[in-house]
Amino acid sequence: MKDIGILGLGVMGRNLALNIAHRGFGVSVYNYTPNETEEFVAKHMQGEDISAFYDVESFVKSLKSPRKIFLMIMAGKPVDNMIEVLIPLLDKGDLIIDGGNTYYFDTDRRMTYLEDKGLLYLGVGVSGGESGALNGPSLMPGGSREAYALVEDILTSMAAKTEAGPCCTYVGNGSAGHFVKMLHNGIEYGMMQSMSEVYDIMRNVLKLSADEIGDVFEKWNEGDLNSYLMEISYKIMRKKDDETGKPLVDLILDKAGQKGTGKWTAEASLDLGVPAPSLSVAVYGRVMSFFKDERQRLSELVKKEPTDAAIDKDILINDLENSLLFSNFVMYSQGIWLMNEASKVYGFDIDTAEVLKIWKGGCIIRARMLDLLIDIVKEDRSNINLLGSEKALSFLRDRLPSMRRVTMAARDHYVPALVHNTALDYIFSMIEADLPANLTQAQRDFFGAHTYSRVDKEGIFHTKWE
Ligand code: 6PG
């Protein structure tokens, strides 16, 4: 009898199965179509304690009770379909784990549905891509503590490890795990967008080659900007196309794909009324990239007249390093605010510092900056968006001049910098005592009698404006 079953042998499922087996657990595997299973047995299994099954019933029967089945299949309808296949084969107390990038409301729905049948369900965020799955991902499990207890030893031993411990912790109730993984991806979109903005400024304003940009990224990666995304980006900059010998990045079509997690983050921010403009605009960055033909056509119709003021390359590169730190800090803070609010509204009961800790290794947004963020969160748990901390404010204050120079340089050279601009405007809004929302309120009252409050006296007012 095996300790756990992996259902779904795409690259992630395959690597998770191997990872778990390498930690000394017995694993059963099954895939809906047999080809992947055959391939897994022939090419990937090398004497591990893994049994492969070609029918779901024998797969389920091969598992120790209470059974634990880790679904690694495409999020959405396939998960519902597979749950229906499994229900008649399972006994009360058995556990289904969904390791996909599932929409958190779906996880809540499934959890309730299965609870009624006496089955346990965990929504687990899995981050780290192919190699993370094999060598140690960051795992974000959410659901009941009872369900988590059944797999805690397996999950913590398969997870990445840092000096702070395994990159797996019980995240919280209900769909907390999938919500947090969604936020991780929202921040991932933001960090990727902010890096591509900096790259754009270096190639279009400073006219640096991909190799030269790679050198800058590598140097930054040795400092405060150290992160997984920075590491892969300098490697990307240096990669040459086999056929032409040109930097491969220069040959890649500038249309960015997306599967939905960034969009859900933006939606959650609006649903919860928490500002996350930089995370949201990163999604729009991808959306706009998709309109290649339109962009190409318009680029020929509007003449760009960049300033010809001299630019000091070293100063701008130093500013870019600071502006990236500023933007990334702001995006983490927007994500953390969203996490704290969701935790309250949805009853997730998330320990933010613990989540940041499990993002330190294995996952895509692992970055040196997380240590600072953890310090700030621990300083005062009621500081929901980090901005109440002097440490946070001095970090931002120190980088504000660079941020202003970078956004101005981008504008002066017609380089779009969506995340940088919104990060700066977000901070400008948050440090402004008097926003012009008074005019918005007056307009609302003018055309719709929506009423307004006043700064000089209590009450609700309406004016006959004409
Ligand atoms: C991770 C990644 C992973 C996946 C993204 C990509 O944490 O390992 O986030 O889950 O690569 O979902 O998402 P997009 O296709 O939307 O960029």
From TrEMBL:
Its EC number is 1.1.1.44. Keywords: Gluconate utilization, NADP, Oxidoreductase, Pentose shunt. Signal peptide: none annotated. Pfam families: 6PGD, NAD_binding_2. The keyword Oxidoreductase applies. It catalyses: 6-phospho-D-gluconate + NADP(+) = D-ribulose 5-phosphate + CO2 + NADPH. It is an enzyme of class 1 (oxidoreductase). Pathway: Carbohydrate degradation; pentose phosphate pathway; D-ribulose 5-phosphate from D-glucose 6-phosphate (oxidative stage): step 3/3. InterPro entries: 6-PGluconate_DH-like_C_sf (IPR008927), 6PGD_dom2 (IPR013328), 6PGDH_C (IPR006114), 6PGDH_Gnd/GntZ (IPR006113), 6PGDH_NADP-bd (IPR006115), 6PGdom_BS (IPR006184), NAD(P)-bd_dom_sf (IPR036291), Pgluconate_DH (IPR006183). GO terms for molecular function: phosphogluconate dehydrogenase (decarboxylating) activity. Homodimer. Catalyzes the oxidative decarboxylation of 6-phosphogluconate to ribulose 5-phosphate and CO(2), with concomitant reduction of NADP to NADPH. This is 6-phosphogluconate dehydrogenase, decarboxylating. It comes from Youngiibacter multivorans.
